[in-house]
Design brief:
It contains 13 helices and 15 strands. It has helices spanning 16-24, 70-83, 99-111, 125-128, 153-163, 194-202, 248-263, 279-290, 302-308, 314-324, 344-358, 364-377, 415-428, and strands spanning 4-9, 42-48, 51-57, 86-92, 115-120, 143-144, 183-187, 220-226, 229-235, 266-272, 295-300, 332-335, 390-397, 402-407, 437-442. The strands form three sheets. A six-stranded mixed sheet has the order 2-3-1-4-5-6, sandwiched between helices. Strand 2 and strand 3 (51-57) form a beta hairpin. Helix 12 packs across helix 13.
């Protein structure tokens, strides 16, 4: 499905990200008082009055970036303007028209795009009385908005819908859950090649790529169509130890990476094959496991690792990964060079297989037969002279596969036994590479031998 695109543009620090979040109804883009926080395009699918479109936040036009990424930021802004069906030109009501606002206005006129002029930070009636002055920019009257006070946001929503191109006959198509594209989060610590990998897959510079660590701060959804295959990649901020975070921007980027993992159908965890697996890699793996997400572990920069260590093999590195990330022993492992594009598409094909594997629902009889077999093979440790007993189980969900087991006493089942049980179910129910979610509930039912 192809959505319309509405991009918020303007000079730095006029409140673009704050307005973006107000329209989205959630803190998706990072907000801060300092200019230049938003670098990549941040996209959020939004529906207003049955009109669906991609709302896009952009970097500030004319930004002077502390990491010398002005050209990359500008490239992202140009892409957003070129793709937009409607531009929201945001100005700061308290500053009046600045020379940079005039430059932005001239650029937007040359784009030939439909422009909706909006004045931000209109917190009082006195400020609103100054709105006529913005008419000089040549886009009509400015619509007054205070995103933080939620003032004028509803009027802006109505104006956006009115300014969009007419809906196709029959209305906009909405993607239902059954037909929703698979979402794949690309995660890893800083500077392991996540954005380079995504650009290889998307075939264009959808996101900024830089050797400067910490370039990507927001999570970015990127739709990819390759032949008959369609999916969404979620690019995320590179993570490092919480104690090493420079400021609140990194902290919020960390939170958004965790949220990206939670809403993904599967995860690509990228490791640097030339570096040791460290604490941050372990923290990310732990969060993936905690949320029961299918995951492929990708060893990036494999070509460089082979140059540094000619005797290295995937088998030997697999043993090393299993030793450092023992909870991920069932996860697939792949080697790749994102810079060269080597095996990049093989990684995508592999992770999509995991998505399909995690969407399978097994029959009740098959599940309970597997539970009987697991208990016969190994019983729980006795506590208070009693063993834990599973009476029966049912599958309550997919992606991830979730199972509710009715037992005599949940406290009889320790973590070791639950890990054993998950391993047995993965093998017997054909989920060899998928984490399973197992929940226990007390019951007075009879044992499940009747299902065997």
């Amino acid at each position: 499905m192809s959505y319309l695109s509405v991009a918020i543009v303007g000079r730095p620090n006029v409140g673009k990200s704050t307005l973006f979040n107000a329209l989205a109804g959630s803190r998706i883009a990072i907000e801060a008082d300092s200019p230049g926080v938003t670098r990549d395009r941040v996209l959020y699918p939004l529906t207003i009055e049955d009109r669906t479109f991609d709302l896009v936040d952009t970097g500030g036009i004319g930004i002077v970036d502390s990491q010398k990424l002005e050209k990359q930021v500008e490239h992202q802004i140009s892409l957003a303007i070129d793709a937009a069906d409607l531009l929201i030109f945001l100005v700061d009501s308290r500053d009046g028209i600045t020379p940079l606002d005039q430059e932005v206005a001239n650029r937007l006129r040359k784009s030939g795009k439909r422009v909706l002029l909006v004045a931000s930070k209109v917190d009082t009636q006195r400020i609103e009385d100054n709105m006529p002055s913005f008419h000089a920019l040549g886009f009509g009257d400015a619509l007054p908005v205070s995103a933080k006070q939620n003032r004028g946001v509803y009027d802006l929503e109505e104006a956006i819908v009115a300014a969009l191109p007419p809906a196709p006959e029959g209305g906009d198509d909405e993607e239902d859950e059954e037909n929703r594209l698979p979402r794949i989060a690309v995660v890893g610590r800083r500077n392991v090649g996540k954005s380079t990998f995504i650009n290889q897959i998307s075939g264009t510079e959808q996101v900024i790529v830089s050797d400067t660590p910490g370039t990507t701060r927001d999570s970015i959804d990127i739709s990819v169509q390759h032949g008959d295959t369609a999916f969404v990649l979620i690019d995320t901020a590179g993570l490092r130890k919480r104690g090493q975070m420079d400021d609140s921007l990194e902290f919020f980027g960390h939170m958004r990476t965790e949220r990206a993992i939670r809403r993904a159908d599967a995860v690509i965890l990228i490791l640097d094959a030339t570096a040791e697996i460290g604490k941050v890699d372990k923290q990310i793996a732990s969060f993936i496991l905690e949320n029961c997400k299918p995951c492929i572990i990708v060893l990036n920069k494999w070509d460089l690792a082979e140059e540094q260590n000619p005797g290295i093999t995937l088998d030997s590195f697999t043993r090393y990964v299993n030793d450092r990330l023992p909870g991920m022993h069932f996860a697939r492992l792949a080697a790749m060079s994102a810079q060269e594009g080597t095996n990049a598409w093989a990684v995508i094909e592999s992770v999509l297989e995991l998505v399909e594997q995690g969407s399978v629902k097994v029959g009740t009889a098959q599940l309970n037969s597997a539970l009987v077999k697991a208990q016969q093979k190994r019983a729980t440790k006795a506590k208070g002279g009693k063993l834990g007993r599973i009476y029966y189980g049912t599958q309550t969900g997919v992606s991830p596969p979730a199972f509710l087991l009715f037992v005599n006493n949940p406290s009889q089942f320790d973590d070791n036994y639950l890990r054993y049980l998950a391993n047995q179910l993965r093998r017997d129910l054909n989920y060899p590479e998928i984490p399973l979610k197992i929940m226990l509930k007390s019951s007075n039912e009879k044992e499940i031998g009747r299902y065997s």
